[in-house]
């Protein structure tokens, strides 16, 4: 039986994630996922693409906000900011406002990263719509790159690792799924079958598969050391390259809200297109 094998949320964009046994599905993604972001003095989002050390910052959601840790720094408790303290922020083509975490959090994150930075919280996710090119009016997203939920499959990772290990110059370990920062991982399907999915069900939650996920240099950063290497982009370019990009995983938009998904839930494909029809756009 195809099933959900793991669930991941990333409290702060580009920082280390948490594996959880269950999660509530909200219109803008899994509860607690990417509701915080690090920004520069101008309010532009900072990601691990530019500052690799972000992957070493470990945030944990608490009842009152966040607890964040990083190498060689004491842990810091960050209370959920007052929503009245809004500041302008930008992430990719989105411009909106978010609540400022305050001077203590800003000083801590700046020291952890070695660059001037601030921490902000998206108190109201309805401020950010998804890209209209691959979604519908009213679709929303938190501080995730473009869409609310990212799905990957264990079988596709195994197929990719076959290429990675075969082309390795020296012995190396297979790439872990953490390189790809998915929210949900499923198993019991064929490798790359996700290219053809258009509507899926996980437990009681239904999602639209709206776009393949183009992968960037963030996947080449080891989440445990922040060291950058050539994989998996090198191997993806051999087997998963088109439209000038490399592809792994699919972006989902929830059609069912306020339900809980759990590890072990049944996974079902509700709608699919013929193999080879292309993973980038919904079926016409």
TrEMBL record:
The MOSC domain, residue ranges: 123-270
Superkingdom of origin: Bacteria
A Pfam family reported for this protein in Swiss-Prot or TrEMBL: MOSC
PROSITE patterns the UniProt entry points to: MOSC
Record InterPro entries: MoCF_Sase_C, MOCOS_middle, Pyrv_Knase-like_insert_dom_sf
SUPFAM superfamilies the UniProt entry points to: MOSC N-terminal domain-like (SSF141673), PK beta-barrel domain-like (SSF50800)
This protein's name: MOSC domain-containing protein
